[in-house]
Amino acid sequence: MNVLAKTAAAALLSASTLALMPTGPAFAETVLRLDEVAVGELDPAKASDYADSILMFNVYDTLVVPAQGAPGLVPHLAESWSADGNSHTFKLRKDVKFQSGNPLTAEDVVFSLDRMKALGAGLSYLFANVDRAEAADENTVTFVLKEPYAPFVASMLRLPIVDKKLVMENLGDGDGDMKDWGQAFLSANGAGSGAYKVTAHNPQQETVMAKSADYFLGVPDAAPDTVRLRYGLEPATVRTLIAQGEHDISSQWLPPEVLKALSQDGAQLLTESGTGGFYVKMNTTKAPLDDPECRLALAKAFDYSAAIKMIAVTDEISQGSPATGAIPVGMLGANPPSNELSRNLDEAKKHMDACRYNVGDQNIEISWIAEVPLEERFALLMQANFAELGIQSEIKKMPWALFAEQVSKAENTPHISQLFVNAVTGDPDTLLYGMYDSKAAGTWQSPEHLNDADVDKLLEEGRVNSDEAARSKAYHELNNRLMAIAPSIYGYDRQSVFAASNRVKVPALSDPSKAFGLDGMGFTFRLMEMQDN
Amino acid sequence: MSPVVRLLVKRLSISVIVLIGVSMLIFTIARVIPGDPARIALGPNATTEQVEKLRDKLHLDEPIYIQYGYFVRDFAKGDLGVSLYTNRPVTTDIAQFLPATLELVIVAGMFMIGLGIPLGIMSARFRGKAADNIIRVISLLGVSAPSFVWAVILMLLFAFFLPLFPIAGQISDTLPVPQRITGFLLVDSLLDGNFRAFFSALHHIILPAFALALSGIGQAARLTRSNMVETYDKPYIEMAQSFGFPARRIANRYAFRPSLIPSLTIIGLDFAAMLGNAFLVEAVYAWPGLSRYGVQVILRKDLNAIVGTVLVISATFLIVNIIVDLLIAYINPRIRLAERGGS
Amino acid sequence: MRRIFYILLSNPLSVIGLVLVGTVVFSAVFADFIAPFPSHRGAVVDFSNFNQPPHWPNIFGTDLVGRDVFSRILYAYRISLILGVVVLAIAVPIGVTVGLAAGYLGGWTEFCLMRLTDVFLSIPPLVLAMSVMGLLEPTLTNGMLAVTTMWWPWYARLVYNVTRSEAQEGYVLAAEIIGASRLHVMFREILPNCVPSIVTKMTLDLGFVILIASSLSFLGLGVQAPTPDLGSMVAEGGNYLPDSWWLTVFPSLAILIAVFGFNLLGDAFRQVLGSDQ
Question: Span B90-299: which CATH code?
Fold first, then answer.
């Protein structure tokens, strides 16, 4: 069927070009090729990582989108919104149709929320506080929260709207009225209103997407006609493919050396920054790291400038900038860029002396995630740094899945884990709550198992208070508290760097005034411009 | 019953016993080791309740022999369970990835036979001379490195420094993938009549297949040589030589034939070893075969997928060995006669 | 003994084998003295000198955290050899006992033991080792265990075949007639006749164990950092091809040289001991 469709499309295309410009050059279909790590999860209710976000932001739409080049949110599917206590009401546009042709209505929004909550996967925890959504009429939908939640509207960035009618027609086997909630269908097909529709999807290999002609905002001609998102390519492969002009945008997971080699060959470097950091997380329940003095000693012994040097790509571009505290520069509550953290071995030794353990007797386990080779180098750096304090350590490589399993119990969680964490909606609450609130302990984001009353209180304040200035104050205090008890070493503020061929222009990833400030949003294909070969 | 059929029945029944053993072995290994597959599968945000539900569904809390019973019951229905890694039936996953691996191994097998045996014959014919020594050193070198080392070296030489071959994948990105009929890209593109796709696929498979074949080529050459050298000492060869038969005819006709049988046995084994080594080569060339899937499911403790993958590979291994045995029986009149006499 | 050396030294290929194996063993044993940067076997980082192509004093270049690749290869040899020796020291006795028992006792013992052997032999070696290794934690001990599980059946097969033919020989029958115990016959009468084939196979296998162990660590199922390991060096360096070629090329050649040496030597033994099968 696929082949047939393609042939038909090709035939149509050649027929029209023949008719329109019989003597001109044949109109070439533009193809954008990029890669990400496997697995590409197409079901928007299960989307969690970067690859999933790319798929979600292009195949589906959300009620709001981040403003470009500035903080804040702008209307998208919703024309306007208002809050009244714990209920938030959104007015929807009337002219939006799904790719199936079904109109997008308030019913679909309610369905999308119910589905997200029922499956309980991906980023559904963002909506745990939402009691229900109600459709007042075709174009008005109201979300009712259980408790006040200040950054609620931003969480709408993670609620992709699914075509209810199409999903209901394609329910798979399962118990209850909703059977499988269309999981089987949505893991292989798109059911959104986005600018790109899925034409082929294999979670291990690649997803192929094509321009959707009747997108409600229209898709510019310069945007790629077809996008091929491939999964799990080796860095050496990507490096050569780009150099040979057979690949367009790399994933952000290329090691800095490879990015450097590519840029020397003439590839452009794209960047996306501002929403996350590299965190070295310490298990605060295990000796000797249950003593804050010991943690502070490690935090002071960590060689921050070596870390920055390790991730530098060129003189101007790096995969990160110096950290100033627990909150990345630019986010609510962050310290100014001048407060760079740095290594201080003397202070580290003082903290070490204040620590109640005799550290010579302890052996610390430093884990690194097998899927992220860069972390092995950080593990070695830490092993060398900590050895200067007389601390013995052991390096342990862990596949992601195993890591996620082990952190669920404090006693199985390694002393040290390394994680890249980002604010999934751009708000500090979605960065910090999951990492440091005592109720969130033991998830992949919180291998610290931190239980600190002050931290909990400040996190709560940031959530509930709708006054921006009060929130800012709360997060500043929180930042200080997190520096004082050091559950983590704040390695650096992360910046994603992608190598790209010169066939494509991506303003959202190269021009700060067009940047979205939300991970993955820069890969909105309709805003990309293909150059002629 | 013809002797070949009887041999087939005998070998098949032994294979079934062996496969049952393999399934028990791998089933036990996969289940006695710590780590909760349900928790791993559900990911970081799952609740305890969800984990318990999945454990229950997978019968993880039952004794191991009961679990094995469930496995056998499902297996009889052709069901290997659902992979926790891809959320798809293991049989679907394997059906998708296996053909690419088999294609690679079969082409490598052709290299092994097509290059290894002639090299061995040459070596034996010129034994003691320079040509013999060169071939012997080359074939020993072939045997002396794991296939990933050859894969990396060949890739550096013939894809990076001399860009003669593509470095990764199964077919050029710019070509539409031919319709999936057999799953073997080389075959499908031919059936499709799509010669550009065929040549692209051929172009992509040469380097990885050769890297995979190198140790087999070395092995086949060494073996053919040593068997033929033994045969050369037999009186009938001396007689042929004294009659003044051409050296090439003696080599190909009289010395080679008898040494074919032991070579075939080892080639069967080598072919099977290549099924395992394909994991290494696929990792280097980003070949979309069973390798990445296999490594991933092992790392993720995806029980059903591990058991399924190992079983399928072992079954392929056994089938290849049976085919080799039948070939030998067919070629070797002594076995045919012995079987007949024995009945 | 002298005859053996004479034959060994008369063949240039055997001499090369001897030299290669000698070099590998020597550099593994005396790595502490030969390696220009002995501390680089462990967690040392030097970001002022990382990812550098070969130059003096880092003749094989430096890796991504600034360690000397040459020094790490020498220490990796040490780990490989230890692994090889330990694996064979466990696998050979197990395999030999199984093979002797199956071949000499016959009957149900033979059927069960040899079918068990077949089970292990019909899982491609690498896949079996991977499953064991992947499910356990990747450490040196588990690596040895994984390789051992796949190695003993080959010795069981070998000894079984020899035993079956030897069991019909006159000296065995003679020993049985004078009432020697089964254990005596197996280990005192038959075993000595298996020794030449076992020794030859062991020499060849030392190379192959290194090869398999490096394959496992290439797939990420091997010894953990910062312990130097040839397979993981190749795998890690592979990400930086073709620019940082020295990270892969030298460890690859190191594997090739070691295994090639053991193979040449094994071939030579085979000729000398006349067990050319």
Answer: 1.10.3720.10
d(Cα A142, Cα C64) in Å, to the nearest integer?
Answer: 54
Residues of chain B with CATH 1.10.3720.10: 90-299
C-beta of residue C244 within 8 angstroms of C-beta of residue A236? no
Q: Are A459 and A436 in contact (CB under 8 A)?
A: yes
Q: Are A464 and A474 in contact (CB under 8 A)?
A: no
Which residues, 6+ apart, have CB-to-CB distance to A277 below 8 Å? Answer: A320, A323, A328, A420, A421, A422, A490, A491, A492, A493, A494
Determine, for residues A380 and C45 on separate chains, whether the beta-carbon distance falls below 8 Å.
yes
Q: What ipTM does this complex have?
A: 0.85
| CATH annotation of C60-274 | 1.10.3720.10
Distance CA B145, CA C215 (A): 10
What architecture (CATH level 2) is domain A26-232? 3-Layer(aba) Sandwich (3.40)
3-state SS, one letter per residue, for chain C: CHHHHHHHHHCHHHHHHHHHHHHHHHHHHCHHHHCCCHHHHCCCCCCCCCCCCCCCCCCCCECCCCCEHHHHHHHHHHHHHHHHHHHHHHHHHHHHHHHHHHHHHCHHHHHHHHHHHHHHHCCCHHHHHHHHHHHCCCCHHHHHHHHHHHHHHHHHHHHHHHHHHHCCCHHHHHHHHCCCCHHHHHHHHHHHHHHHHHHHHHHHHHHHHHHHHHHHHHCCCCCCCCCCCHHHHHHHHHCCCCCCCHHHHHHHHHHHHHHHHHHHHHHHHHHHCCCCC
Please judge whether A236 and C240 are an interchain contact, meaning their C-beta atoms are less than 8 angstroms apart.
yes
Residues 6+ apart with CB under 8 A from B276: B313, C124, C125, C126, C127
CA pair distance A172, A181, nearest whole angstrom: 7
Cβ-nearest to A443 among B45, B86, B296: B45
Pairing verdict, β A392-398 and A363-369 = parallel
User: Is the CB of B34 inside 8 Å of chain A's CB atoms?
Assistant: no
CA distance A164 to chain B (A): 23
Residue contact C255–B17, C-beta within 8 A: no
Across the interface, whether the CB atoms of C47 and A257 are under 8 A apart is answered no
Report the alpha-carbon distance of residue A272 to residue A261 in Å, rounded: 20
Q: What is the pLDDT along chain C (277 residues), one digit of tens a residue?
A: 677 777 777 788 889 999 999 999 999 999 999 999 999 988 788 888 889 999 999 999 999 989 999 999 999 999 999 999 999 999 999 999 999 999 898 889 998 998 888 888 877 778 878 877 776 777 788 888 888 988 899 899 888 888 888 888 888 888 888 888 888 888 888 888 888 888 888 888 888 888 888 988 888 777 777 889 999 999 889 888 888 999 999 999 999 999 999 998 888 887 777 644 3
CA-nearest of A334, A189, A276 to A517 is A276
Class of the CATH domain delimited by A273-495: alpha beta
How do the domains of chain A map onto residue ranges?
Answer: 26-232, 273-495
User: What is the C-alpha to C-alpha distance for residues A328 and A492, in angstroms, rounded to an integer?
Assistant: 8
Q: What is the dihedral of CA A245, A249, A253, A257, to 10 degrees?
A: 40
CA dihedral B244, B248, B250, B255 (to 10 degrees): 150
Q: Could you tell me the residue ranges of all domains in chain C?
A: 60-274
Rounded CA-CA distance B262/B257 in Å is 10
**Straight-line distance from the first to the last Cα atom of chain C, in angstroms, rounded to the nearest whole number:** 22
**Tokens representing A4?**
């047939």
**CA-closest candidate to residue A374, choices B284, C251, C236:** C236
In this structure, the strands spanning A504-505 and A529-530 are: antiparallel
Q: Are A141 and A82 in contact (CB under 8 A)?
A: no
User: How close does chain A come to C102, measured CA to CA in Å?
Assistant: 41
The pTM (predicted TM-score) of the whole model is: 0.84
Which among B39, B288, B299 has the least Cβ separation from residue A408? B39
